[in-house]
Amino acid sequence: MLDAGGKTCKDVRDLLNNFGLPVPRDAQTTVVAQDSHWTVGAPNANPVACARPRRA
């Protein structure tokens, strides 16, 4: 889902908003490293979230 980049889907926005991270409707997902690191935020602004999978 995140590896596609581009517009952040509603499910991801809702999840981040539930954790107190204000993600706007026009948020974009940027792939930093496929399958392992993404950022989410408004276009042309600093990211509001950084996502990485949990390591066991």
Explain this structure to me?
This protein is an alpha+beta fold and 56 residues long. It has one domain. The protein has one helix and four strands; from the N terminus they run E-H-E-E-E. Strands 1-2-3-4 form a four-stranded antiparallel sheet, with no helix packed on it. The longest helix has 9 residues, at 10-18. The radius of gyration is 10 Å and the shape is globular. The model has no long low-confidence stretch (mean pLDDT 89).
Computed over alpha carbons, the radius of gyration is 10 Å
Euclidean distance between termini CA atoms? 21 Å
Name the structural class: alpha+beta
The pLDDT mean sits at 89
- The poorly predicted ranges are none
Number of helices: 1
For the record, the count of structural domains works out to 1
Q: Report strand %.
A: 25-35%
Helix content: 10-25%
Shape: globular
**Biggest beta sheet attributes:** 4 strands, antiparallel
Q: Describe the strand arrangement of the main beta sheet, using strand numbers.
A: 1-2-3-4
Work out the number of β strands.
4
The topology string of helices and strands comes to EHEEE
Could you give a short description of this structure?
The protein is α+β, with helices and mostly antiparallel strands.
Q: How is the topology of this model organized?
A:
Blueprint: E1 6-7, H1 10-18, E2 28-33, E3 37-41, E4 49-51
Antiparallel strand pairs: 1-2, 2-3, 3-4
Summary keywords:
56 residues, alpha+beta, 4-stranded antiparallel sheet, 16% helix
